[in-house]
Design goal:
The chain is mainly α and about 475 residues long. It has 19 helices and two strands. The two termini are about 50 Å apart. Pfam families: HD_5.
């Protein structure tokens, strides 16, 4: 328990005391505890935890979710016996990080309390009798009540330990936990009911095992999906870190372009799967800078025509770098074409209008917006409203007007977090969104919202790089 906050220790101790009180009646002589089904269910739950503890099987099979076993126990056993089912499996469950023993004890107490509450809810609604008689659809009611009780106890305890351990403020410790848990518990409750009914059938407990097979397969697929997603994220992080190391002047720029791209895409009504691809496109849009000489990227003065031509090769370099990464999908085209212009004067291929891929048009606006609103070592950030006015001025010639309008709507709704990009010791200027910065050294960055259209700076006020030079984010 060394290193665990006092409040967290108290939370664990209270859960253990509560769990002990729940299981004690089952251990009392003469209690009439049905030991045979209890041992079978406890062994089944414990065996279900074993693959995740074995390094080879854990990687091959993954860790299934076996709440159906506990919810079946809640419908088959008295509350004290149902609480005892969870303890052996929880005590051998895998732990991602230490200290292992306190975490296992906490999990055993948490699941014992949840199973006890689920069994009590089922008993109050005559769940065991309904299961014995295969009374459908009435049996759905106690099964649903058991799943709900289990969900409430688990989320209450999870929020309590988050608040006690300190990583989450107490006010937000329970935020969203119940909403995320209700649907999975409902599915597990239905599977638990099916297990319990088959257990009471003439075929006995072996028949109940068939319910676990599809549950295990679905959990395995879910785990595989998350492993694949984690691998994707690791690939993205590695590429972005490589760019940041080479071009320190744009530190953090990639992540913000990804965020702005998602804001635009969401306003356009793109589905969640496509939002991920758009975010990848925004994050990786400058990955081609890995192929640009460092002396050109870090040059403080104006670029020569030859150096400009080298810089303008970075979309093609980026496309070559990510060509073999299949999960990026249309993000590859966005990386290649994010410097094309609506009037056809962009690069690398001079595409115009709708010939430019939609994802590239999204990233182009997000890239230019962040380039204008970020402080870098060679210039200060421009106000958000000024950046928006510049985007609107260039809409139709450089940027897709639809993307610009979507960004404006998103900024009105969510605001924008200004931040330092190139030099962490340079204070980011703060701004009211209506005029020059009045920041003082050390003033923190803030989230900004666009002021009403009538108060935005006009086309003749404060645009970066002069009226004749549009923003592209390459430098």
């Amino acid at each position: 328990m060394v290193g665990i906050p006092v409040a967290a220790r108290a939370c664990v101790a209270a859960a253990v005391v509560g769990a002990a009180a729940c299981v004690l009646p089952a251990l009392t002589p003469g209690s009439g505890t049905p030991w045979r089904p209890l041992v079978l269910l406890a062994a089944l739950y414990a065996v279900s935890e074993w693959p995740a503890r074995c390094s080879l099987l854990g990687r091959t099979l993954g860790a299934g979710s076996f709440l159906p076993v506990l919810l079946a126990a809640a419908l088959l056993l008295p509350p004290a016996a149902a609480a005892l089912v969870a303890v052996p499996g929880a005590l051998i469950s895998p732990v991602a990080q230490g200290p292992a023993l306190p975490r296992r004890i906490w999990r055993a107490a948490r699941l014992a309390l949840a199973a006890w509450a689920a069994a009590h809810s089922a008993v109050l609604l005559d769940g065991p009798a309904a299961v014995d008689a295969s009374d459908f659809p009435y049996a759905l009611l106690p099964a649903g009540a058991a799943a709900l009780a289990c969900c409430l106890v688990v989320t209450a305890l999870d929020g309590a330990i988050l608040a006690a351990a300190g990583p989450v403020p107490p006010r937000g410790a329970w935020h969203g936990l119940l909403a995320r848990s209700l649907a999975p518990h409902a599915v597990h409750g239905l599977a638990g009911l099916m297990m319990a009914v088959l257990w009471r059938s003439p075929y006995g407990w072996p028949a109940a095992l068939f319910v676990l097979l599809p549950m295990y397969i679905s959990c395995w697929m879910y785990a595989q999906y998350h492993r694949e997603r984690a691998a994707h994220q690791a690939t993205i992080r590695a590429l972005v870190q490589a760019v940041d190391i080479k071009d320190a002047y744009t530190r953090g720029h990639s992540e913000r372009v990804g965020r702005a791209s998602v804001l635009i895409a969401r306003e356009l009504g793109m589905d969640e799967a496509r939002l991920d691809v758009i975010r990848f496109a925004g994050i990786l849009h400058d990955v081609g800078k890995l192929g640009v000489p460092t002396r050109v990227l870090r040059k403080d003065g104006p670029l020569t025509p030859e150096e400009r031509r080298v810089i303008e090769l970075h979309p093609e370099y980026g496309h070559e770098i990510v060509r073999g990464i299949g999960f990026l999908g249309e993000a590859r085209a966005a990386i290649l074409h994010h410097h094309e212009r609506m009037d056809g004067s962009g690069y690398p291929y001079g595409l115009s209008g709708d010939r430019i891929p939609e994802a590239a048009r999204v990233v182009a606006v997000a890239d230019a917006f962040d380039a204008m609103t970020s402080t870098r070592s060679y210039r200060r950030a421009r106000p958000v409203a000024t950046a928006v006015a510049e985007l609107e001025r260039c809409a139709g010639r450089q940027f897709d007007p639809r993307m610009v309008r979507a960004l404006v709507r998103a900024l009105d709704r969510y605001g924008w977090q200004t931040a330092v990009t190139a030099d962490e010791n340079t204070p980011a200027p703060t701004d009211t969104g209506t005029g020059p910065s009045d920041a003082r050294p050390g003033t923190p960055a803030r989230a900004w919202r666009i002021v009403p259209a009538g108060r935005r700076p006009g086309p003749g006020r404060g645009h970066g790089r002069g009226h004749g030079q549009a923003w592209g984010g390459a430098r």
